[in-house]
């Protein structure tokens, strides 16, 4: 049977009439039609934190030019990874259940002619991480990309998407996790200081499948990423992790949406961030929707922010939308704070210098989350990156010069 763009669109928009009746101020009703998505003004709830003037028009009408970002990957045995175009590329649009609720995502699906397909067949256990590396060369060139990851039933794989260099990119990443599969997707935003990255990651988790998504943002002028998950049957489990470190002038924004549209499903969200330098700004918006059919689910979302210097701003907004009381558990937590004086005093009382005590506290703040990523090579890299970020400001003599 030939699958067309129109058939995919029709199936997704008509698959669940009850789904389309749900209205959420954080997740507006989606549409594949670009015309249904006005250019954001910044007054919309889902855009009010984003610095639209710094997005280089990616949210609006910026042309999606030929790419100046190189893309390379390894290909473990049994895995298909290649760029596809034509009807095959069009058939992948919406394969995760995505019906775009932003203009940029709708434009990517409608206008980008090619897709990068990562296809892991059923029952295959991939021994090594699949690494897709994107290296940008020109932040003045606005471009866009679509990535489709398909994991067959009972497969097991880790995919790492690594972003470096200078780029202005809008991207949609779709992930379909088959029944009983065990999948980890790690997206690292380690861009140059002039990069702009606007991304939407959408995953559909199969029956009794396990899905882990880790979003790690250090570089870039502006990074805004949506990470959404829905379920394709009972028993699915999703873990959404995030780590970010914003320096002077940076804007890093992460938005999460766990849509519990099936019973006996689980989601756990844990994001941690640190900020230092004048004008550093982070945004974390978490939202969990528990539908009427989602009885017996468990969910928890947590965001922690550590402010290291004056002049920073961290916005953190957790949300729960609950339509049934028949759940196993649901909760959320959010905190933004400076160093804990008692921790510093404890360390300094044992002969540790103030600078070293500060460094140890920051490492301790991130360490448990880093260890949950589950990819040893990435964990070691993150520890080194945190150390490099600290060296920019935290370990200087001027640190905390104005803190009471």
Automatic annotation (TrEMBL):
InterPro entries: Fe-S_cluster_assembly_SufBD, SUF_FeS_clus_asmbl_SufBD_core, SUF_FeS_clus_asmbl_SufBD_sf, SUF_FeS_clus_asmbl_SufD
Example GO biological process: iron-sulfur cluster assembly
Region Disordered, annotated ranges: 1-37
Domain named SUF system FeS cluster assembly SufBD core: residues: 141-365
SUPFAM superfamilies: Stabilizer of iron transporter SufD
Matches recorded under Pfam families: SUFBD_core
Stated family: Belongs to the iron-sulfur cluster assembly SufBD family.
PANTHER family according to UniProt: PROTEIN ABCI7, CHLOROPLASTIC
Protein name: Fe-S cluster assembly protein SufD
